[in-house]
Amino acid sequence: MAYEKAWADNPKINKTEQKKLVKDGLKIFEDIPHYAENGFSSIPKEEWDSFKWAGLYLQRPKEDGYFMMRVNVPSGILSYEQVKALAHICKDYGRDVFDITTRQAIQFHWLTIEQIPDIFNRLEAVGLSSAGACGDITRNIMGNPIAGIDPHELFDTTEIVKEVYEFFQHNEDFSNLPRKYKMSISSNVNNSAHAEINCVAFTPALKEIEDKEIPGFHIKIGGGLSSRPFLAQPLDVFIEPHQVKEVSIAITTIFRDYGYREKRHLARLKFLMADWGPEKFKEKLLEYTGPLHSKGKDALKTWNGGYFYGVHPQKQEGLSYIGFNVPVGRLHADEVLELAEIAKKYGNGEIRTVNSQNLIIPNVKHENVELLLQKEIFKRITTQPLSFIGHSVSCTGIEYCNLALVETKERMRRIAEILDQQITLDVPVRIHMVGCPNSCGQRQIADIGLQGVLLKTKEKKMVQAFEIYVGGTLDDGGKFNEKLKGKFRADSLDEVLFRFLTVFKNTKLPAESFFDYINRLGLEQLQKELDRIAEELEEKVS
């Protein structure tokens, strides 16, 4: 259906919006075969950003012509054939770098324009796509990674996520949104899809309708991170499962037609929601959907941080799912191929990705669990990781990303391993590292968030450094972590964290979480401890 671009006559829209009026982002798919045939030099520089709609970013440095690609994995569910196809793309074209993202997608690097058509064909052959994985469009739809096998889910959301995802795929009615648009749909009662930091989140709920309790969803609108983070706000509506697609289309239409297009840094749905508020947004939503039920009973119980380590019984009798740690989300092609064969031999071939950058092998018969876990590969990709490496998340960083200021991925892995050697705690501490304010590594929701910056030394040189944030959670509606004063050189960060966490260990209560500890002591006391650590390290250097 054609729609009216209400913003087309606005002379104040930004340059990106002006360009999108002339040519829709999805049109890049029509151009890629020509560019692939004629090489990177044939791509006009002004077209580089258009590749985002195909899930492609030019990696650092852009002029070298290598692309990063994200592949959508709705709900994180991959079949055996899909896993194999992704592994071979990684092996043949991606220089053996296979990353799981914080939105359950798969990310490749080092791709050239000549390779892209073959990669598209391989993805299409197994029902995968990179369309919309980047750009001003609906991104990969996050879901419950144990959908359909979760003993505690209200119902299986797999087909609902698939229906909504497929509606928006290659749909030019919704490919020109003001900015990126992130959605989650999950009935996992432990908030595994991180509802509060999505633009739109469908969360599990119950509602008594005609004397019968019906499972369905509540919705939260306007979450998002980056340099101005917002927690999504609930609307007073209850959505039945069959209404999800209709409501998704209505909310996306509101964002498309009323979202801000003048200043690009204010264009996310979170800014519209912050200005309108829940009541006005609900009023506008009902104009599109007609009457909806009012809120029912929230079925969310807690937040599991996206962690599923270990062996767990499925709702299907006799079967287990097994959660594994992938250190900072990075795998090698041969590892992925081996995991696929293990999943096929002991399960049904599925592998599921998690937004904590980890993975799950489902549908393993109870009697085969121990046989599976004896495989050599599970010494690195383990069900029982050490505490820090098991709760570390990292963005791509300066290794490939044009926006990053510092190295992150390998640094986070090294620091986590050092901390695991130096200190043992009775509770996990979640550490997220990001290379810039865009926060692909979701720094704001971590116990300890590490954000990369540049620091001018006494010799007036710029060096990589980090700021430290503490106290993030998505429990009870969520709370973003708060910044402590100071910038710490990257080469001393492991020592800073060791000393900081040693203070935590020596002054915490038994089984007290890092979040509860911060709330008990207060930021002022933590700042004093961090200042003391900084002074000691300064004296040590001098």
TrEMBL record:
Gene3D superfamilies tied to this protein: 3.90.480.20, Sulfite Reductase Hemoprotein, domain 1
Record family assignment: Belongs to the nitrite and sulfite reductase 4Fe-4S domain family.
InterPro entries in the cross-refs: NIR_SIR_4Fe-4S (IPR051329), NiRdtase/SiRdtase_haem-b_fer (IPR005117), Nit/Sulf_reduc_fer-like_dom_sf (IPR036136), NO2/SO3_Rdtase_4Fe4S_dom (IPR006067), NO2/SO3_Rdtase_4Fe4S_sf (IPR045854), NO2/SO3_Rdtase_FeS/sirohaem_BS (IPR006066)
Protein's name according to its UniProt entry: Nitrite/sulfite reductase
Signal peptide: none
Keywords: 4Fe-4S, Heme, Iron, Iron-sulfur, Metal-binding, Oxidoreductase
Stretches assigned to the Nitrite/sulphite reductase 4Fe-4S domain: 135-289, 393-531
Domain Nitrite/Sulfite reductase ferredoxin-like: 61-126, 312-374
